[in-house]
């Protein structure tokens, strides 16, 4: 029997190669300490759209070795016990052959390892002479990758090996017998669809390795002659694809090693946003506070073109956390001094293009339902709490975010419970002057806001939230409403102006808080998505108390808005949005003179056109009817054109 087997092997080079592949695994299992360095440096790789393979050890280099295989009856394999059952077929014994041509390829990666193994690039690849050479090589590698690993986008591209072909059925039989492929993420071999020849070759290579390992480790079972003959025929049929697959693996390893060697960081990702803002405002006169006669000063605003740049360095240490370091520069000037009201402000405004550390915060996810935040600067309430609103691209400050989330920004901490469940609970504490050790400042003695919010996520289409914020030394209006809403107990800037005219509002005079004010703010918000349409809005109420006068002064500040947005309007990623609302209004005040007698209305429309994945163009406009809640003021119109770059 052995003589006949030897004669057969001599006249079959492919079978000789297969036997060597089998025997070399036995040698690896028996004497790993004696292998040479070159025999141990095989590399694993993950092949796109290929079923996950259960083996963990790579195919070793060509070494002739004999391996005795016991006999028995054929039964299903027990891979968990690493043994083979007996079978009725005649076993193959004492194989000593050479590895077949085209099978020297890297094995499929361990399913637990989803990264590509590194190989050491050559000196020319890792030490280019200049930055331009590095960029050129990276571009070259990227282009090569797109050619060698093209994505399958059409069913016709998968028609090389159909389920009815003998090879397909043969490999599936081997897969079921020896468990050499764990299956796709859905747990099946997808035997009802065609596959590419390269995908098929990767599966064949996995079965070659599994058979080799089973022969090397088995003491009770064996691999049958019929299966070896099937593998021999498959290797001969797909010899070219096996060799090409090995070449692709080598090219991919070189590209990955080079790019990893020249990457910015293994833990930090840079993402950025750049905003170009073209804006102008139109009207007759500068707005004055409620109760004052119309201003005699003409509203004179020149067209401006400004920017905001944000660079976010997001670092992850565990894969479930994020340390954000944000650098920001901007020179978008507020229109308040030219229009007489903060109702004309943009959400991007501020600064003079000095680069500052705008945010330093850490977010950690302990479980799917529990997340915490810590920040030393730039931490906002809406970073922690879910702001239920369907128009985040609105250019105005009032339309882009509810006023209740603007009561504090600085250092603090926050917690979120519930995750994506039906109920989500957010809690946060943020101090505006946490880094200042002077009297009346610091983490607990100065201005702060503490938030609690419950969000009912009935489905992915409906969200309803209830929010409470207690703040100290903060603006009841959140900086969006009238001067009386933002500073109900402040000093009186409405006396004699610089020209000596009495009882005339002068926007250049200060109107900051001159009184420690405590605020209890409440809000109910909702957003409902009906197909591509978002319908939402909010109602907010703040009760403010003058703490310096032992609670003698009390005011009630209200605001509300209704939003409507059409997603994917005119193309994927676009949005057409509308906002109608009342900016924060001081309706009652037991201190004489500092309350709003009339009502202002904010009407806004914008269209976000997503030019591509990285560029959006957002024309928008909003009008203020009766600005500063004063019927004596003429309406003010603001037009904007934003270009937003993200990368």
List the helices and strands and how they pair.
Layout: H1 2-10, H2 13-30, H3 37-40, E1 52-53, H4 123-126, H5 131-148, H6 166-178, E2 181-183, H7 197-217, H8 225-237, H9 239-261, E3 268-282, E4 304-315, E5 321-330, H10 336-339, E6 356-367, E7 370-380, H11 381-384, H12 397-400, E8 409-417, E9 423-431, H13 442-445, E10 448-459, E11 462-472, H14 483-486, E12 517-530, E13 533-546, E14 554-567, E15 575-589, E16 601-610, E17 615-625, E18 636-646
Antiparallel strand pairs: 1-2, 3-4, 3-18, 4-5, 5-6, 6-7, 7-8, 8-9, 9-10, 10-11, 11-12, 12-13, 13-14, 14-15, 15-16, 16-17, 17-18
Helix pairs in contact: 2-7, 5-9, 6-7, 6-8, 7-9
Tell me what you see in this structure.
The structure is a single chain. This protein is of the alpha+beta class. 22% of the residues lie in helices and 30% in strands. Strands 3-4-5-6-7-8-9-10-11-12-13-14-15-16-17-18 form a 16-stranded antiparallel barrel. Strand 12 (517-530) and strand 13 (533-546) form a beta hairpin. Mean pLDDT is 75; it is low at 1-129, 141-159 and 492-514.
List the keywords.
single chain; 18 strands; 16-stranded antiparallel beta barrel; disordered N terminus; alpha+beta; 14 helices; 647 residues
């Amino acid at each position: 029997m052995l003589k006949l087997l030897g004669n057969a092997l001599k006249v079959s080079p492919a079978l000789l190669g297969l036997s060597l592949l089998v025997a070399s695994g036995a040698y690896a299992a028996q004497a790993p300490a004696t292998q040479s360095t070159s025999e141990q440096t095989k590399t694993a790789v993950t092949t796109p759209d290929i079923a996950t393979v259960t083996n963990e050890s790579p195919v070793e280099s060509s070494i002739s070795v004999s391996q005795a295989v016991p006999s028995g009856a054929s039964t299903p394999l027990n891979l968990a016990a690493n043994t083979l059952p007996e079978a009725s077929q005649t076993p193959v014994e004492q194989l000593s052959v050479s590895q077949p041509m085209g099978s020297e390829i890297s094995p499929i990666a361990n399913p637990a390892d989803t990264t590509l193994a590194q190989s050491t690039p050559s000196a020319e690849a890792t030490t280019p002479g200049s930055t331009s050479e590095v960029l050129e090589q990276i571009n070259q590698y990227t282009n090569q990758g797109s050619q060698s690993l093209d994505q399958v986008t059409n069913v016709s591209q998968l028609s090389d090996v159909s389920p009815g072909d003998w090879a397909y059925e043969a490999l599936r039989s081997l897969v079921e017998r020896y468990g050499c492929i764990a299956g796709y993420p859905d747990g099946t071999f997808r035997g009802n669809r065609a596959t590419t020849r390269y995908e098929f070759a990767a599966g064949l290579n996995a079965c070659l390795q599994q058979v080799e390992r089973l022969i090397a480790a088995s003491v009770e079972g064996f691999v049958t002659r019929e299966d070896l003959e099937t593998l021999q025929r498959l290797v001969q049929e797909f010899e070219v694809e096996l060799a090409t697959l090995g070449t692709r693996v080598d090219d991919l390893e070189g590209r990955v090693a080079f790019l990893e060697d020249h990457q910015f960081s293994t833990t930090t990702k840079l993402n950025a946003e750049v905003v170009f803002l073209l804006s102008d405002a139109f009207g007759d006169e500068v707005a004055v506070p409620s109760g004052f006669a119309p201003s005699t000063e003409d509203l004179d605003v020149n067209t401006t073109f400004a920017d905001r740049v944000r660079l976010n360095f997001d670092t992850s240490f565990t894969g479930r956390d994020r340390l954000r370091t944000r650098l920001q520069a901007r020179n978008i000037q507020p229109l308040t001094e030219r229009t007489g009201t903060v109702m004309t402000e943009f959400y991007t405004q501020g600064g003079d293009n000095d680069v500052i550390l705008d945010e330093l915060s850490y977010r950690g996810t302990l479980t799917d339902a529990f997340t915490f935040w810590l920040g030393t600067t730039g931490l906002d309430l809406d970073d922690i709490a879910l702001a239920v609103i369907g128009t985040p691209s609105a250019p105005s400050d009032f339309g882009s975010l509810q006023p209740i989330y603007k009561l504090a920004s600085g250092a603090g901490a926050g917690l979120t419970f519930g995750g994506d469940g039906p109920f989500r609970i957010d809690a946060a504490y943020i101090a505006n002057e946490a880094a200042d050790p002077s009297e009346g400042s610091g983490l607990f003695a100065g201005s702060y806001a503490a938030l609690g919010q419950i969000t009912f996520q009935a489905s992915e289409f409906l969200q309803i939230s209830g929010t409470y914020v207690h703040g100290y030394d903060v603006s009841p209006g959140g900086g969006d409403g009238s001067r009386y809403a933002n500073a109900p107990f402040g000093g009186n800037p409405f006396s004699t102006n610089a020209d000596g005219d009495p009882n005339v509002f002068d926007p250049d005079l200060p109107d900051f808080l001159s009184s420690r004010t405590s605020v209890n703010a409440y809000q109910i918000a909702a957003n409902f998505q009906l197909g591509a349409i978002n319908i939402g809005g909010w109602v907010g109420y703040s009760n403010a108390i003058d703490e310096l006068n032992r609670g003698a002064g009390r005011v009630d500040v209200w605001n509300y808005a209704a939003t409507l947005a059409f997603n994917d309007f005119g193309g994927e990623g676009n949005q057409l949005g509308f906002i109608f609302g009342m900016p924060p209004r001081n309706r009652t005040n037991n201190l004489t003179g500092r309350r709003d007698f009339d009502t202002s209305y904010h009407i806004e429309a914008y269209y976000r056109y997503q030019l591509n994945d990285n560029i959006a163009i957002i024309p928008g406009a909003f009008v203020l009817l009766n600005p500063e809640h004063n019927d004596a003021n003429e309406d003010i119109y603001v037009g904007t054109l934003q270009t937003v770059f993200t990368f």
